[in-house]
UniProtKB/TrEMBL annotation:
<dbReference type="Pfam" id="PF07690">
    <property type="entry name" value="MFS_1"/>
</dbReference>
<feature type="transmembrane region" description="Helical">
    <location>
        <begin position="25"/>
        <end position="46"/>
    </location>
</feature>
<feature type="transmembrane region" description="Helical">
    <location>
        <begin position="289"/>
        <end position="310"/>
    </location>
</feature>
<feature type="transmembrane region" description="Helical">
    <location>
        <begin position="151"/>
        <end position="172"/>
    </location>
</feature>
<feature type="transmembrane region" description="Helical">
    <location>
        <begin position="178"/>
        <end position="197"/>
    </location>
</feature>
<protein>
    <submittedName>
        <fullName>Predicted arabinose efflux permease, MFS family</fullName>
    </submittedName>
</protein>
<keyword id="KW-0812">Transmembrane</keyword>
<feature type="transmembrane region" description="Helical">
    <location>
        <begin position="262"/>
        <end position="282"/>
    </location>
</feature>
<feature type="transmembrane region" description="Helical">
    <location>
        <begin position="58"/>
        <end position="81"/>
    </location>
</feature>
<keyword id="KW-0472">Membrane</keyword>
<feature type="transmembrane region" description="Helical">
    <location>
        <begin position="93"/>
        <end position="113"/>
    </location>
</feature>
<feature type="domain" description="Major facilitator superfamily (MFS) profile">
    <location>
        <begin position="25"/>
        <end position="407"/>
    </location>
</feature>
<dbReference type="InterPro" id="IPR020846">
    <property type="entry name" value="MFS_dom"/>
</dbReference>
<feature type="transmembrane region" description="Helical">
    <location>
        <begin position="230"/>
        <end position="250"/>
    </location>
</feature>
<dbReference type="InterPro" id="IPR011701">
    <property type="entry name" value="MFS"/>
</dbReference>
<dbReference type="GO" id="GO:0005886">
    <property type="term" value="C:plasma membrane"/>
</dbReference>
<dbReference type="GO" id="GO:0046943">
    <property type="term" value="F:carboxylic acid transmembrane transporter activity"/>
</dbReference>
Length: 408
């Protein structure tokens, strides 16, 4: 008997048209991505408290190492879970990844030292890195939209999760303890697991030919996909370099430009408000003009508005400029994910998304390093914005190397 995922034997997951509507799939995946966003940001929220905990004797260098180890786990998870998803089915891997990071996040609340804490963050990262490729594959397979609105709407969950983490940190840590932040993040994720098992559909069926040739990793390199795969990896590297580089160093760069600390932090908030607006706008535009064309426009606009940030503007003008930069910079990478999802066949879709996300994580690590190097050299303003604009241009060029049509 052939299951909904195209595999023989075993218990099939519920069919999309019988057990879950496209909206139901989107809601479940959005919830998983929101919890991922919470979990990836929570470390930054609790670190100020951990650094002052005499029992931990944590230094900034050790804290940075723990953060980096977690990101390495996310990268490995993205690279590994994608092929497993295409091999064994979306539903099983979504349940597995959410279970993994939720249980390990809860365990983080119980540890008493940095060594075990860092190990748990690495292992939790394996699950966190796998959530996104599976979720994007599922929402795009269940959605009728041909553009990127399904993906951009899904990614608003990440930003909501990040904002909730920051707000809860302000409220919870003074009243309770930093450990409560991990408990608060883990319990909803654990509660989500039975809902995923009950209502989440399995992948759309694949053809008999795809089932016989089921080697998802090979899909990235054969049949004319090699050039597109390399182009997507370069683009993802540049896209996440922009996101993490700007989120880390924009306040300090603006202080170098002469703004007060309060104004610099307000500009960071403005940048992220622009990110949410950009996701909603990019989805609508890509549905109308196509995800490839929209991605090219977005990278072009990101480069332009990043370069314009080097121009001193009075009063309200700088907030408008930063808002527009946020609209285009942050949603470029999400459009890349949407483009990847539409470009590859179902048999290798999650693998391609995982590879793009995994390679992109290297850019996420390099972004803060680039900004820090420019600051150390005294070149952060205005050259920092020129450097980030150049990164956007490289991403734009890489997109043009993606095949305009799906290879045969």
């Amino acid at each position: 008997m052939t299951t909904a995922s195209g595999r023989s034997g075993g218990e099939p997951g519920p069919a999309i048209d019988r057990r879950a509507s496209a909206r139901g799939v989107a809601a479940l995946c959005w919830s998983a991505v929101a919890l991922e966003g919470y979990d990836l940001v929570v470390l930054g929220v609790v670190l100020p408290k951990l650094l002052r905990d005499p029992g931990w004797q944590l230094t900034p260098a050790t804290a940075s190492l723990i953060s980096s180890v977690g990101l390495v786990g996310v990268m490995i998870g993205a690279l590994c879970v994608g092929p497993l998803t295409d091999r064994f089915g979306r539903r099983k891997l979504m349940i597995a990844t959410v279970t993994l990071f939720s249980v390990l996040t809860l365990a983080c609340a119980l540890v008493t030292g940095p060594l075990l804490f860092g190990l748990l963050r690495f292992l939790a990262g394996l699950g966190l890195g796998g959530v996104l490729p599976v979720a994007i594959a599922l929402v795009n397979e269940s959605s009728r939209a041909r553009g990127g609105s399904a993906t951009t709407t899904l990614m608003t969950g990440y930003h909501v999760g990040a904002v909730v983490t920051s707000l809860l940190g302000i409220l919870v840590i003074p009243l309770l303890t930093w450990r409560a932040m991990f408990v608060i993040g883990a319990i909803p994720a654990i509660a989500l697991v039975p809902l995923l098992a009950r209502y989440l559909p399995e992948s759309l069926p694949v053809s008999a030919e795809e089932k016989e040739a089921r080697n998802p990793v090979a899909t990235l390199f054969r049949g004319g996909y090699l050039r597109s795969s390399l182009a997507f990896w370069v683009t993802s590297f540049m896209g996440l370099l922009l996101v993490y580089g700007l989120n880390t160093w924009l306040p300090e760069i603006m202080r170098e430009a002469g703004y007060e600390l309060g104004a610099a932090l307000a500009l960071l908030l403005t940048l992220n408000v622009g990110a949410v607006l950009g996701l909603l706008l990019a989805g609508r535009v890509s549905d109308r003009i196509g995800v490839r064309t929209c991605t090219l426009i977005w990278f072009t606009a990101a480069a332009v508005f990043l370069a314009l940030l080097s121009v001193p503007l009075p009063g309200f003008g700088v907030y408008v400029s930063v808002l527009l930069a946020g609209v285009f910079v942050f949603s470029t990478q999400v459009l890349v994910y949407a483009y990847v999802s539409h470009h590859y066949p179902a048999v290798g879709r999650a693998t391609a998304l995982g590879a793009s996300s995994g390679v992109g994580r290297l850019g996420a690590i390099c972004g803060p390093l680039l900004g820090g190097a420019l600051l150390s050299a005294g070149l952060a303003y205005p050259w920092g914005f020129y450097a980030f604009a150049a990164v956007a241009v490289i991403g734009l060029v890489a997109v043009t190397f993606v095949s305009k049509r799906q290879p045969a």
